[in-house]
Amino acid sequence: MTTRAELRRPNILFVMSDDHASHAMSCYGSRINNTPNIDRIANEGIRFDHCFCTNSICSPSRASILTGQYNHLNGVKSIDDHFDGRKQTFPKLLQADGYQTAIIGKWHLGHGGFADPTGFDYWSVLDGQGDYFNSEFIEEGGRQRIAGYVTDVIADKSLEWLRKRDKDRPFMLMCHHKAPHRPWQPDERHSRMYEDVEIPYPETFDDDYANRAQAAVQAKMRIGRDMVVTDTKGSPPEGLSDEQAKRWKYQRYIKDYLRCVASIDDNVGRLLDYLEAEGIAEDTIVIYTSDQGFFLGDHGWFDKRFMYEESLRMPFVVRYPREIAPGSVTESIALNVDFAQTFLDYAHIEAPADMQGRSLRPLLQGTTPDDWRTAMYYRYWMHLDEHHHVYSHYGIRTDRYKLIYYYAQALGTPGSLDENRPPEWELFDLNKDPYELKNVYGLPEYEAVTSELKEELHRLQAEVSDLPVDEI
Tens digit of pLDDT for each residue in 130-163? Predict the structure, then answer.
């Protein structure tokens, strides 16, 4: 019988960016940029094509990753909620079982009281969103402003911690980049990338939001109308039509976004090179992901929040040579609430009963269990936030269909645009309509499907102990 001391316990390097959409990664078939170092992870490991967040906004996704719980249980439903560091997290469990643990970079779960990071031997995190240049870092002993470009600094600090670690014990390092979050400020090294190139426009760039719920019409995320001078680093030249100005803004935005991505990719390469130079690449699980997706001009938008595909999907690539076949791809549904249990599985630590995900290890090994999920549940809580004006909603996604319920109108927020508007449904047939342009809810040919999806939606809500809105 294998004793615990003889069990192989891999190192874990978890690299997460903020707002990096999968369709801005060449391993996912990007038409607009190349990410050779992130591609190294995918090419030498596995790419998940259907990894989804359960709430497409920064703080809630981070809380779900730490706890393995949906937001109504972990307490972080919006970016205004602070995380309660007394809660159980996978870093705490790893730390208690002998792992060296650290988090460096973006935390975005609050500071002070019980909100600072717990379960880490070392933490050095940005104050809130942080700054692209000369950012302030908070550590257990105080605050320090560090000169330099934040993506480089986070990688520098990560490499420094790795060099000083106890090499006789496994480690878990969370390297969390600020980039490519708004306002998309590139470093000097990448500032002239794409200077003489016109970046292709997405297929849905001129979406008119016809045949959809009012939520899409009312959202304040349009590139032409809602981007501000700090986003585009200037105003459009005089004399442009509205359509020309929209395209000018897109080019300014997307080029800076991609320049920020290029800096991340360079620094991912530095970490990978370190693992190889140390001779520990074989014994280290390397993950690259983002806290959610992002609209890159898709539907004419920037930002995230919606359950639409570009926002819902997270990039998720993993390398672990001892178990993962190079060049693997899986289309099985994975969720951010699965990450915690996956890491505990590899560390041979039993996951707490209140974690709501499932270990992805079988998928990483190339096998999809017969009882694997065929649908996922999503809920966005920040109804009509001041800046983006997205309706609260929840829904279900299967391999073919997506059903979304914009329920908050039913709550009758006094004086708001939704006060006298009934709740709305959207149903998309992803096989026929992959860009989610045609709401087929209410069409006779989809009545049976709709009924089945609503039943499954209720089942998933009950399974994760969430409460439906009464009007459903």
Answer: 999 999 999 998 999 999 999 999 999 999 999 9
Q: Which helix (H) or strand (E) holds 334?
A: strand 334-335
Give the model's pLDDT for residue 381. 94
**Token pair belonging to 315:** 């990039």
Euclidean distance between CA atoms 254 and 276, whole angstroms: 33
How far, in Å, CA of 24 to CA of 272, rounded? 20
Chain center to CA of 399: 20
Closest Cα partner for 371 from 332, 426, 414, 427?
Answer: 332
Give the chain's residues under pLDDT 70. Answer: 1-6, 409-421, 470-472
The C-alpha atoms of residue 198 and residue 251 are separated, in whole angstroms, by: 7
Q: How far is it, in rounded angstroms, from Cα 438 to Cα 427? A: 8
CB 305 within 8 A of CB 380: yes
**Strand 11-17 relative to strand 171-176, pairing:** parallel
Measure the CA–CA gap between 70 and 74, rounded to whole angstroms: 6
Q: Whose structure tokens read 């076949």?
A: 325
User: What does the alpha-carbon distance between residue 37 and residue 35 come to, in Å, rounded to a whole number?
Assistant: 6
pTM over 0.85: yes
Give the CA angle between residues 167, 173, 177 to the nearest 5°.
140
Distance between CA atoms of residues 381 and 384, nearest Å:
9
* Rounded Cα gap, residues 372 and 365, in angstroms: 14
Rg (CA), the chain: 22
Q: Are 43 and 321 in contact (CB under 8 A)?
A: no
User: Could you identify the residue written with the tokens 């988090």?
Assistant: 103
What is the pLDDT, as a whole number, of residue 411?
55
Q: From residue 355, how far is each of 58, 90, 100 by CA, in Å?
A: 20, 10, 22
CA–CA dist 116, 138 (Å, integer):
9
User: Which one, of 322, 252, 314, 249, lies nearest residue 288 by Cα?
Assistant: 314
CA angle 360, 362, 367 (to 5 degrees): 130
Angle between helices 339-346 and 58-67 (to 10 degrees): 30
Strand 100-105, strand 334-335: pairing: unpaired
CA 86 to chain centre: 24
| DSSP one-letter string for 87-108 | S--HHHHHHHTT-EEEEEE---
Residue with tokens 């990978």: 272
CA distances from 222 to 29, 260, 297, 388, 406 (A): 25, 21, 8, 9, 20
Three-class SS of residue 427? strand
